[in-house]
């Protein structure tokens, strides 16, 4: 009994520690500027001035569009190529397969700062510097290995008897992948794509390095460059409001699809709820 009480206490502490900063930011975004740093945990009234100020900035609206295009494109391309690679690594026999698996695992853990110089040379050589296409290309450096590594486990969980039966009927590996394995691995594809999208949506380092014009930058970079008249007059209200605009839709999506996300990260379950 005491152990269970200690467990629940630990869970409560973790939840409070995790959600309290988000709650303070949410409440602060609805406070007027003169009460922004009040210790009162609930605002006396809802003030939408900060949200109006944020959406009055064309650069912020443009950055939202840029982030949606870049993150969505990176996630879709990663799913398209990553699922094919994952299926080949999970099912098809070929030389150096074990080495490729270790390489994918290694690439998924390489810090982004280590990739900056090489990707910078690549982007400049291809003429994609300061473009959304260049950002999509660089984001594949971390979304693609993640998709491949996770989807390998899902394809391995698909019943091999179904695939063997299709091969007996004369199906090619591509047909087996498209008609049998991919539909059964769809929960994993959904959850993996969503996590890849969130990672690309929140990415800051590459977007800061490979873009220089405001109309090409993504929303995390634009928010970080909100500034006031002086360093002592930062528009904290606008920063909080912009952060909520960027974060809340993702939170809602995760809450709505939490069952599918959990199922997608549990290989072996092949049906949707």
Labels describing this entry:
273 residues, mainly alpha, MetI-like fold, 13 helices, disordered C terminus
Summarize the structure.
The protein is mainly α. The protein has a domain at 60-221 and 249-264: MetI-like (MetI-like fold, Orthogonal Bundle). The protein has 13 helices and no strands.
Task: Report on this structure.
The protein has 273 residues and is mainly α. It has a domain of 178 residues: Orthogonal Bundle (MetI-like fold), CATH 1.10.3720.10. Helices cover 72% and strands 0% of the residues. It has 13 helices and no strands. Helix 5 crosses helix 6. The C terminus is likely disordered.
SSE layout:
Blueprint lengths: L1 H28 L19 H7 L2 H34 L5 H11 L4 H14 L6 H26 L2 H9 L4 H12 L1 H17 L2 H5 L9 H6 L11 H21 L1 H7 L9
Helix pairs in contact: 1-12, 2-12, 3-6, 3-9, 4-6, 5-6, 6-9, 7-8, 9-13
Identify low-pLDDT runs: 268-273
Order of helices and strands: HHHHHHHHHHHHH
Within the CATH hierarchy, at the fold level, what is the topology of the domain at 60-221 and 249-264?
A: MetI-like fold
Mean pLDDT: 86
The share of residues in helices is over 70%
Number of helices, where a helix is a run of at least 4 consecutive DSSP H or I residues: 13
Q: Which CATH architecture of the domain at 60-221 and 249-264 is right?
A: Orthogonal Bundle
Q: In the CATH hierarchy, what is the superfamily of the domain at 60-221 and 249-264?
A: MetI-like
Over the alpha carbons, how many angstroms does the gyration radius reach?
Answer: 23 Å
Report the count of strand segments: 0
Structural class: mainly alpha
Shape: globular
**Major sheet size, sense and barrel closure:** none
CATH class of the domain at 60-221 and 249-264: Mainly Alpha
Indicate the proportion of strand residues.
Answer: under 5%
């Amino acid at each position: 009994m005491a152990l269970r009480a200690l467990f629940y206490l630990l869970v409560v502490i973790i939840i409070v520690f995790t959600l309290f900063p988000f709650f303070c930011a949410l409440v602060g975004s609805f406070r007027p500027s003169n009460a922004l740093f009040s210790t009162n945990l609930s605002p006396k009234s809802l003030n939408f001035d900060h949200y109006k100020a944020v959406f009055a900035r064309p650069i912020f609206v443009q950055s939202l569009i840029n982030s949606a295009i870049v993150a969505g494109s990176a996630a879709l391309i990663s799913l398209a190529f990553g699922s094919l690679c994952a299926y080949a690594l999970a099912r098809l026999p070929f030389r150096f397969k074990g080495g490729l698996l270790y390489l994918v695992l290694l690439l998924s853990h390489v810090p982004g700062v280590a990739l900056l110089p090489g990707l910078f040379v690549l982007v400049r050589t291809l003429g994609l510097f300061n473009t959304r296409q260049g950002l999509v290309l660089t984001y594949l450096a971390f979304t693609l290995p993640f998709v491949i590594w996770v989807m390998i486990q899902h394809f391995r969980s698909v019943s091999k008897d179904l695939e063997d039966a299709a091969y007996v009927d004369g199906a090619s590996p591509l047909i087996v992948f498209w008609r049998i394995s991919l539909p059964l691995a769809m929960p994993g594809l959904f959850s993996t794509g969503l996590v890849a999208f969130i990672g690309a949506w929140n990415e800051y380092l590459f977007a800061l390095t490979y873009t220089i014009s405001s109309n090409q930058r993504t929303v995390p970079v634009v928010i970080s460059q909100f500034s006031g008249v002086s360093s002592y007059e930062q528009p904290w209200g606008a920063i909080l409001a912009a952060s909520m605009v960027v974060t809340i839709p993702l939170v809602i999506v995760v809450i709505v699809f939490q069952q599918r996300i959990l199922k997608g990260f549990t290989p072996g379950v092949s049906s949707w709820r």
